[in-house]
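Treating backbone geometry as a discrete language has practical consequences that deserve illustration. In the encoding step, the backbone of a single protein was reduced to a row of integers, each denoting a local shape. The amino acid sequence and the backbone structure tokens for this protein are reproduced below.
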Amino acid sequence: MVTGRNTDAPETGAYISSSRRIGRAKIAFVIDDTASMQEEIGAVREALTDLIIEFAARGVHVPIHLITFKDNVTSRILSSDLTAVQAEVNALFASGGDECPEASVDALRYAATTLNAGSVAFLATDADALPGSDIAAAVAELRASGIRVNVLLSGACSGGYKLADGQDLPPSVNCETCASKSYSKDGYPTAAIALYSVLAAETGGLYAFIPEVNSSPYFDPSGATRYENAAFNVMKAAVLPSLPALNPGFGYRGTTITISIDGSNTNFNATSTLTIGGAGVTVNSGGATSATHFVANVTVASGADLGFHNLTITTTLGKAVTEEATGTGTFEVKDTVTAPTVAGANPAQGTAGSALDVDIYGANTHFDATSTVNLGSGVTVNSVTVKSNSFLTARIAIDPTAAGYRDITVITSSNGETATENVPGPFLVTEIVNAVVPKLVSITPPVGRPGQTLNVDIVGENTHFVDGVSMRCKAPRTPRPDSATCSSRPVRKSPPFSTHSRSGCGRPKPARAQTSTSIRIPDSPT
């Protein structure tokens, strides 16, 4: 931003020009600071402080834009001076906000004007967007600059999803009428859960819903810690190797489950190994399925330490080059349950109109050939494959009009057992208005030595690479070497797959294209 004055008579006073920008941010923190965020704002403040401390320790100095919003939008600071940013973070507090809908979409649109291409916006809110918000314009502006939106949602104020302070819970979180029956003129859902899950999906970002932080019936003593951990991990995901998303994010004592871990700024490969801190959680097996995804089977011992456990995935990238991606308090160990319980679902999210397999894990269950699965109306269970008394796979088809969080119930008729869960959801059906998000999914090799010239293969998803289009290369900022040089233009080595092709189990296969280019890495840092 440029602030100026016209000193000619008559003097205009200070003015701000949005059309002239000197420097842009790498991260935007877009925070709802209305009174209903009383519990959340402290956790956001602590997470931001921890992030600034980590940035300082690692020598990371990137421009940060701190933005807050109520019914209007306020720019707090745009700076790479961590001390100055910390001072503004310390001043964050929750107040005001007469009505629940807030200016979240306007705040994101403003952030898009100040962020570098390929940056990340972190949004924390507990409310719907203001009526009349131009959601389609926001999505178009964010996608045009490749800006991902990572969302941490803790409540809503539309339909039956009323999870902020003093508001009611939905009678059942599979309530279709609660999720999104209201749409903007551009076809986007306006209810918070539907809107923000779509915003995250359509910009390639992360979405987390943690209503337990609020002092509502869903509150639990660990809710604030869970929210703060999520805020820190999702914020850190903007620029550092991290593990911001885990599904399921908890395990009961005495159970064995498969967990799915999403990485950010990671280069997982065949050497990647997972460790879980604290006592009592054993990694039985696991491995990378892509550069940013890792799947592991873990056992939670009956005497495992209760509470939050750190995750670390260590990857060898080259000679003497090791990547360490961490998730702070990402996995929670909960106490033993005595009733038949659905302990988790993987994946925990599906798109309206899609078909997929969902693994369902139980605790104190006795699944067998008579077990049936129910996820509410609009979700058809076509088959159930039982793999053990606590693990089954359901093949489901989701109606194009279905939306919202879904309870999962497993009924085993042979013994009269009914297993349910006690968390919001745990399965979310997301509406997608414009599903095609271009992404780079892998780079091979992921590292190179100073002074080296090498060929690099880049695989994109939902991309349309063509011959003769220049490629932008950029080296890490810390330490800051000279920019890596692209010495050839990308060439499409294979055509993308059809976005409509399907695999044997009915899942859409993303369109992918591969390019190859030669780069030269500078001899030494400057």
About this structure: The radius of gyration is 24 Å.
